[in-house]
Each structure stands twice: as structure tokens, then as C-alpha cells.
């Protein structure tokens, strides 16, 4: 390399040098391999690209002294075994056009060249139809030896003494425990989504993971333990644009950090703040305060709709159809959290809807309207009509009918970003008969089957939505629907509780209570939100304060949500309360008017649908 001073001063001679490959590779290596975990990633990806069904990873000293993959993939020929260490040596693209249809993990032909520039590498590889394999030893980009060798079909690459010739990098490495945790993270990111491939990870002679090929849930359990099998709901959806398959954590298992959030696109781990937000949004207020859902979600999209102009070792990606993907993902997760209830399954019968162009900026979607036939009597349907669908209350019998009900005449009617609207269409007729079972459940018919509704949870949801929305409105209007009490009721608290209660007064007034302090520990209540009985008042407040003090209330996002959830729980009808026909119909109608009728404020399932097929059986 020589820019010498005299040459610059007397610029009479040629001074540009072409860097030797070994130096260029070493510089490039800095980008591709900055720590052992990145070499682990490249080796795993190469083995998968080679079609391996079993990949064993061995590390020593957190990858400092050894990183080795042994795979049963296609192997390499003698000359490829040498060529693969050249820069821009790749079997994965031939023309620039290929870039738009990449289905492999690597394609730039940089990884092996980079690794070989900064380590001592031993490659042993054999193609399945060859009798002998090849061994190549390369150190700091220099081929040391190549010779035939007996080895199993597939490829073994051992990377020894990483950064042996780059002391600055070597000294920069963190403690073994830190580097190993990076390796494990890479291992999870790769293995979680490639659950059809067997993987193992051995560190300092100890096997940390031995993952058999299987389902995604089995893979999650293999990595995190069997207890995880119970902690997730399945998300699955398929539209023209996007295929979703994965698992979302039940709200009660939400964590204090975002550690367990894994999003994959076309088999590759990605970070995408907007899509992650779509998942979190679907949880709405089901999550404890400052906690985050766990999820493992695989997306499949047409590679041509992904911006490929992004560095392959980076995890950021850009999508052409980001808005639509956001809506589909959020809706799918919502559906999963509602646990397959309602007719939401119909939402995806007409994926063409997702091809609607994004709404113009500033466009405010209209409120979804419920349309129904007021003359409909569910018990008048002829036997042939009731055979496949219990409730044809929307006049829906064929897929075309669904489109008719769901697809608006004018495209502006449809909020492409809010797919909750179709859920509303699943509500039963206001006149649909209800039956109370065991003093706990209301049974009624929906278009998707027979609904069994937990009356207490349903009421909790209705009250909660009413309280929270009332509070939001009263911020401006200073009024809430409440009923004046015929006789004022006194409530008494311990001094500490009275202090707390005093602090909460403004909130409570917002929900429709009229309360004033009367002496040190007594408060007088002159009005309550509709639905609350006078005799329940003291108990309701006592429990609300207890909830507020205990950790259970920190479960909700903010104070309003926590207070409303507590009040709703106290005020809701309890099991054993006999409900009249009209009360049940009202409750069911109110429930379906809520944006999230499927789950109670504390995240419990409200509705179970027994499908017509199941009834037929
Ligand atoms: P890229 O993966 O971007 O093509 P790499 O430097 O990672 O570049 O690999 C170079 C080439 O070496 C690959 O294109 C592939 O043909 C070959 N190769 C690497 N690892 C393996 C392996 N485990 N089995 C078979 N071939 C491999
Ligand atoms: Mg590669």
C-alpha cells in the first residue's frame, strides 16, 4: 500500500494501487463479521441455502476459538470448494434481475470470503453423488492446502481463531457469556422460523439445544421449554398479499421487555417497527401496564414486493404494501386473541378487499353501520335454510351474499385500515331469542353458529367500554350519564383509604358518580352511573381501592383503564343472577356494539361459537 509523502508532493508518478484481495476482504469482513454471532448466522444460512435438513453447530469459547457447522446439504465440487472463498463468489444469483426474486438467505458472495480473511478455516465438503470429498484449509485469505478426503456428504466448515490477524477486533470482543448470548439469539432467530430443519447447538462440549424438525409450536417449545406450549394463540391467515403463520402470547404472559418478539419475512428475521406496532395494537387494552406481548410470527410475501436494496446482514426491510400489511396483520392477531369466535373467520373469504388502495390522507372512515332485517324471525327459517347456517339473519347464504353484505357500494364506505367493521355484521338480530343456561351463560344464534356468552364477562366488557368512553367524553363535556339516588348513601373508609378515595374523586365523577367528602373518612354519594345498585356501593368502592392498591391494577395501561376495569368487575351481573329475555337481548346487543366483544377487559374469553358443522354432528 504505498502513498509515500514524496509521491504526493511531487505528483509525477502513478500513485493508485489496487488493494490485494486479502486486504480488501479483511476490510469487507469488518462489515459482515463483527463478532462470532455474525459468523454463526452466515454459516447457518449457507447450510440452509444448501438444502440441509440437519445442521449441527459447535462453538468453543463463545466462538472465539471455534465456530463450526456440519450440514447434510448438497455439498460442493472440488473447484467450488476453492472458489467459494473468493469475493463475489456465489451460486445464488447470475444476473442483476435475479435480485428481485431472491429466495435464498445469502446472495452477495461475501460471507465466506470475509470469514476466511480473518480466521483459519477448514472446509470439508462432499457432493452426494461423489465418492470422495475435498478438504480446503485457508488462513487469512491464503489457501494453505486442498486435498481429497473421505467425509460424509454435505459440508463441514470450521472457523478457528476468529480475528487471529485483527487484534483490534479480537480485543473488542465482550465476555464469553455476552458473546454466547448473541450466538444463542442468532440461533433462535434462524431456528424459530425454520422449524422443518433439525438443528443443534453445542457449546464447550455441552449440547444446549437439540431441535428436531416439527411444527412451529414444537420448535418454540424446543427453544423455550414445554411450558410455552400453553402460552400462545395460533395466528393464521392467508390473503393475496400476505400469508401469516405464527403464535401470539396470551395477554397474561406478557413480559416487561420486548425480548420475545419475533417477526420473520420469507424465512428471515426482521425488525419492522410498524408491523410490530400492528401486533401490539391488536392487544388493545388487554395488556398489563408497560408490558409487551410475546410473539413469533412468520410472514410470506412476494419477494418482488420487498425493497431488496438493503444490506443483507441488516434486519431492516421495506415493503411496497406496508399499509395493507399492517391492517391484515393487526386484524389477524385480533382474531387470534378473540380465539376464533364470531364470524370473523369470514373476514378473509374475500381477500380481494385487501387490494383496495390506501385511503387518501386525511380521510376519516365512517362509523360502521349495522344493517339488519327488522322483520326477521330466526325461528321462521325453513329447514333447508337452517341446514348449513343456523342464522341466516343477514340473508347470507352464499359467498356472494357475504360480499354483498360486507362490500360497500362505494369504496369510500370501507375503511381499509380498520377491519373490525365486519365483526359488527356478525352480531345477532336484536330480536334473536336468548336462553339463559345455568344462570351463567346466554345462548343465542349468530351467522357463524351458536354463541355461548359468559354473561358476567359480557357485562364487564359493556360496562368497561361505557365507563372509559364516558370518561373520555366528560373530559370536554363534564357530564356523564348517571342516575340520582333517591336517598344519598354514605360510604366510610379507613383514614388511608379515605385519602386515596379523595384522590380518585375527579376520576369517579367522570364516570358518572356524584360524590362529596363529608367529614374526614366519610363520603356522600348522590348519583351513580346507571347499572349500579345502591346496596353495592360500599363494597364496590372497597374492592376498587383494594384493586387499585394491589398489583392487579397495574395490569392496565393507565389509571382510567384500571379504575374502570375494577368498577366494571364489581358492577357486572354475577353468575346466578336470573336475566329476563329483554335483559339478555339488550346485553347481547350492547356487547356486539363494543369494538372487542370477544374478550373481557381482563383478557378472558367471552364468547364461544359452536359451528353449524359441529351441531350437525
Ligand atoms: P452467498 O451465500 O452470498 O452466496 P457465501 O460467501 O456465503 O455467499 O457463500 C459462497 C458460496 O459458497 C455459496 O453461494 C454456495 O454456493 C457455497 N456454499 C457456502 N456454504 C455452503 C454449504 N454449507 N453447502 C454448500 N455450498 C455452500
Ligand atoms: Mg452466504
Keywords for this structure?
Ribosomal Protein S5, domain 2; Ribosomal Protein S8, Chain: A, domain 1; 8-stranded mixed β-sheet; 5-stranded mixed β-sheet; 19 helices; elongated; disordered N terminus; binds adenosine-5'-diphosphate
How would you describe the overall organization of this protein?
- The structure is a single chain.
- The protein has 617 residues and is an alpha+beta fold.
- Among the domains are: 21-211, Heat Shock Protein 90 (2-Layer Sandwich), CATH 3.30.565.10; 231-343, 2-Layer Sandwich (Ribosomal Protein S5, domain 2), CATH 3.30.230; 461-566, Ribosomal Protein S8, Chain: A, domain 1 (2-Layer Sandwich), CATH 3.30.1370.100.
- 33% of the residues lie in helices and 20% in strands.
- It contains 19 helices and 20 strands.
- It has an 8-stranded mixed beta sheet.
- A hairpin with a 6-residue loop joins strand 3 (120-126) and strand 4 (133-139).
- Helix 14 crosses helix 18.
- It is elongated and about 100 Å long.
- The model is unreliable at 1-7, 339-425 and 474-479 (pLDDT under 50).
- The structure holds adenosine-5'-diphosphate and magnesium ion (MG).
- Adenosine-5'-diphosphate binds next to helix 3 and helix 5.
